[in-house]
TrEMBL record:
Mannitol dehydrogenase C-terminal domain sequence ranges: 291-480
GO biological-process terms attached to the record: mannitol metabolic process
Protein name: Mannitol dehydrogenase
Domain Mannitol dehydrogenase N-terminal per the UniProt entry, residue ranges: 30-282
GO molecular function terms listed in the Swiss-Prot or TrEMBL record: oxidoreductase activity, acting on the CH-OH group of donors, NAD or NADP as acceptor
Entries under PROSITE patterns matching the protein: MANNITOL_DHGENASE
InterPro entries found in the cross-reference section: 6-PGluconate_DH-like_C_sf, 6PGD_dom2, Mannitol_DH, Mannitol_DH/Oxidoreductase, Mannitol_DH_C, Mannitol_DH_CS, Mannitol_DH_N, NAD(P)-bd_dom_sf
Pfam family, one: Mannitol_dh
Keywords: NAD, Oxidoreductase
Length: 498
């Protein structure tokens, strides 16, 4: 068995493997990242690694897992080092990333996480905790009844949620006279910085309501003194397999418990509003802007929206990976038509080149080296579809466009949920609403009643004047999917109908 990748063994790596071009011993933490998953390690951590190599040694990362110890257990014996495998049809390039200096597991020691967050050297907190971890109710406000929110309000010194950790850390920094850190959300939420800002203010108001008389309101401090720039992130990061681990180990001559697979493309657009400094990310491909909104909408509606459609139709059609699904001519035509519906919902005065963007997306979706699993993309549909699909569909109606292809993506999600335990494995993908979804879908309601109930459960298009039209469109598609799968549903859209 090979030795393990670590500070002590990194010099043994072959010359073809890129390694950190800086002395990790002199790097100090300046960033805490909540949610140390594969995406963060392929994206933000790689950008920070480039800044460290350029001599900006005050921006090392302390990674925090809010739930599972898996990443810490994999990387701690490796001194935080891991391999980034950049893959396309031309081959694979390996790079060892050294920007993560240490890792904490919040449930094991919330006090240690709070102590790190209150360290004056920490000037930025970044987050990739996935949409569901923002704990929003169906109307987008904070889910005040969520057990973890209730716990954090009662136990501010031992929080469980990102809301609890950030709010308590900011309260302690204010009390100590330490300037606040900047909170940089990197999740696929609409106006993600503003959304997180609003949720934290809601949480802080609940804390203020139960605080001792005379305490200065924390909600006002968070509202007025803490920066929450929005950002847009983009890089395809498929789940790492055992075969990936074995292949990377052969190339390294060392074991790496958790290498990360990714594509050559990466994009990061950030609103340039930081209260305590930042790395010079713009030197390494990051776009700093005044307003990230148009870039975010383009990515959510064209990349993420297409990804969801590909995932659910691909699963129903027996395609295990994105490239295989996208190679299906009918699914490819469906994606082109979905883009045709979604593009008019984007601003035409923001300098967006949607033609070049969709050409590049088609190349990325065709990357056979990534093996990006459709089941991975299918997770958490109830949290993802509102901003990826439903928002576009509502704006289409306002522009006089019938969103037939967009609503097929929603219908395919419902059909894929129904297929679990039947034509798909029972736990092939998951959703925060699985329990009520499974109960609802097991009732064998008429199709339109099923769709309406799912819309109510997930809060899709709540309050929108044309909500009934969206339900009717999705129900028409779901009928076809139930009768003849994607082939019949796509043929009914004149796709693949010979």
């Amino acid at each position: 068995m090979n030795s393990r990748l670590s500070n002590a063994t990194i010099a043994e790596l072959p010359g073809a493997v890129a390694i950190p071009r800086y002395d990790r011993a002199v790097v100090t933490p300046g960033i805490v990242h909540l949610g140390v998953g594969a995406f963060h390690r392929a994206h933000q951590a790689a950008h920070v690694d480039a800044c460290l190599a350029d001599g900006e040694t005050g921006w090392g990362i302390v990674g925090v897992s809010l739930r599972s110890p898996d990443t810490r257990d994999a990387l701690a014996p490796q001194d935080g080092l891991y391999t980034l495998a950049v893959r396309d049809s031309a081959g694979e390039k390996l790079q060892v990333v050294g920007s993560i200096l240490s890792l904490l597991v919040a449930p094991e020691d919330p006090g240690a996480v709070l102590a790190t967050l209150t360290d004056p050297h920490i000037r930025i907190v970044t987050l990739t905790i996935t949409e569901k971890a923002y704990l929003r109710a169906a109307d987008g406000t904070l889910d005040k009844a969520h057990p973890d929110i209730v716990h954090d309000l009662a136990n501010p010194g031992s929080p469980k949620t990102a809301h609890g950790f950030l709010t308590e850390a900011l309260a302690r920094r204010r009390a100590a006279g330490t300037p606040p850190f900047t909170v940089l959300c990197c999740d696929n939420l609409p106006a993600n910085g503003a959304t997180l800002h609003r949720l934290l203010i809601e949480f802080a108001k609940l804390r203020d309501a139960s605080a001792a008389a005379g305490n200065r309101p924390l909600a006002g401090y968070i509202s007025n003194d803490v920066a929450f720039p929005s950002s847009m992130v983009d890089r395809i990061v498929p789940a790492t397999t055992d075969a990936d681990r074995a292949r990377v180990a052969d190339e390294l001559g060392l074991e790496d418990a958790w290498p990360v697979m990714t594509e050559p493309f990466r994009q990061w657009v950030i609103e340039d509003r930081f209260s305590a400094g930042r790395p010079t990310w713009e030197r390494f491909g990051v776009t700093m802007v005044e307003d990230v909104g148009p870039f975010e909408d383009m990515k959510l509606r064209l990349l993420n929206g297409a990804h969801s459609g590909i995932a659910y139709l691909g699963l129903l059609g027996g395609h295990a990976t994105v490239d295989r699904a996208f190679a299906d001519p009918t699914i490819r035509q469906f994606v082109d038509a979905l883009w045709t519906e979604a593009i008019p919902t984007l601003p035409d005065d923001a300098g967006l080149d949607t033609t070049a963007y969709t050409v590049e997306l088609a190349q990325r979706f065709s990357n056979t080296a990534l093996a990006h699993r459709t089941a991975q993309i299918a997770n958490d549909g109830s949290q993802k579809l509102p901003q990826r699909i439903v928002a576009s569909a509502m704006e289409c109606i306002g522009a006089g466009i019938v969103p037939r292809h967009l609503m097929l993506a929603v219908a395919a999600w419902i059909a894929a949920c129904e297929a679990r335990g039947k034509t798909l494995p029972e736990a092939h993908f998951t959703d925060p609403l699985d329990a009520p979804l499974n109960d609802l879908l097991g009732q064998a309601l008429p199709t339109e009643d099923t769709v309406a109930a799912v819309f109510n459960l997930a809060g899709f298009a709540k309050g929108h004047t044309d909500r009934r039209l969206l339900i009717e469109l999705a129900a028409t598609h779901l009928t076809k999917l139930r009768q003849g799968g994607p082939t019949l549903a796509l043929a009914a859209l004149d796709i693949g109908d010979s």
